Automatic annotation (TrEMBL):
Domain notes for this protein: 2 residues (Tyr-56 and Arg-59) present in a large hydrophobic pocket are probably involved in substrate specificity. They are important for desuccinylation activity, but dispensable for deacetylation activity.
Catalytic residue list: 109
EC main group: transferase
Name this protein carries in UniProt: NAD-dependent protein deacylase
Enzyme Commission designation: 2.3.1.286
Magnesium found in the keyword field: no
Organism: Sphingobium chungbukense
Family of the protein in this entry: Belongs to the sirtuin family. Class III subfamily.
Top-level taxonomy: Bacteria, Pseudomonadati, Pseudomonadota, Alphaproteobacteria, Sphingomonadales
Length: 232
């Protein structure tokens, strides 16, 4: 791994599983009998705002009960010590990467601890319950919603992510099923620019075929091992 300078790491729900946060597809992928896919949509928000807000309130509250695991901590150590470029792109909306100390980090699917105004687009930190029709302190409209990228909406930071991928020498995917695009396509961009591609996951994913190397096992073991290899 000594010819590596620029790294992109994509993380998914699997990196937070050992902290006690449920994944989307690993469990039964249901919440109160609803398919998660049916709750995380603009239509669900329009149809039943109280249900969608309750779904995210419960997940926001849960954050107080969990802590980063060795995988988050290893990535934060890599972030602190890696001399080249590094971007951690997380699909997760929890704050475990931040709490472990990661700095070079983007949340492409938004964050539980942020509220977004559907009217003026202003986002603000939000740690408590977010009742429907909460008032935006920017425009004064009752339009605050969870700052989560719903299915069908444009993920955040795509330009920065694409830019980092095109400069990458190494692309690492951790704890994601490779079921959702555009994240699931990042490995192909990395391959296209000649980067090395490595998947760390509990089991083969929908994208395993695209990776030069796949290591199966828990993130809390595989990620520290990889960071040790990189920092040497
Ligand atoms: N260590 C490593 N990998 C794990 C672990 C673990 N301890 N536990 C589970 N995994 C793996 C599972 O095998 C699975 O492949 O993590 C992956 C989790 O996949 P998903 O539940 O589909 O989560 P994710 O890939 O992050 O979902 C992507 O879909 O629902 C949307 O927007 C949501 O960001 C989410 C996106």
């Amino acid at each position: 791994m000594d010819d590596i300078r620029n790294i992109v790491v994509l993380t998914g729900a699997g990196i937070s599983a050992e902290s006690g946060l449920s994944t989307f597809r690993g469990s039964d992928g249901l919440w109160e009998g609803h398919r998660v896919e049916d709750v995380c949509t603009p239509e669900a928000l329009a149809r039943n705002a109280a249900l969608v807000h309750r779904f995210y309130d419960e997940r926001r509250t849960k954050l107080a009960e969990v802590v980063p695991n060795p995988a988050h901590e290893a990535l934060a150590a890599l972030d602190a010590q890696w001399p080249g470029e590094l971007l951690i792109v997380t699909q997760n909306v929890d704050d475990l990467h931040e709490r472990a100390g990661a700095k070079r980090l983007v949340h492409m699917h938004g964050e539980l601890q942020s509220a977004l105004c559907a009217a003026c687009g202003k986002a603000k930190p939000w740690k408590d319950a977010l009742p429907p029709a909460s008032v935006c302190d920017g425009c004064g409209k009752p339009s605050l919603r969870p700052d989560i990228v719903f299915f069908g909406e444009m993920p955040y930071e795509m330009e920065a992510i694409d830019d980092a991928l095109r400069r990458a020498d190494l692309f690492v995917s951790v704890g994601t099923s490779g079921a959702v695009y555009p994240a699931a396509g990042f490995v192909q961009t990395a391959r296209h620019v000649g980067a090395r591609t490595l998947e760390l996951n509990l089991e083969p994913s929908a994208g395993s075929f695209y990776f030069e190397e796949s290591r199966m096992g828990p993130a809390s073991m595989l990620v520290p091992e990889l960071v040790w290899e990189l920092l040497g």
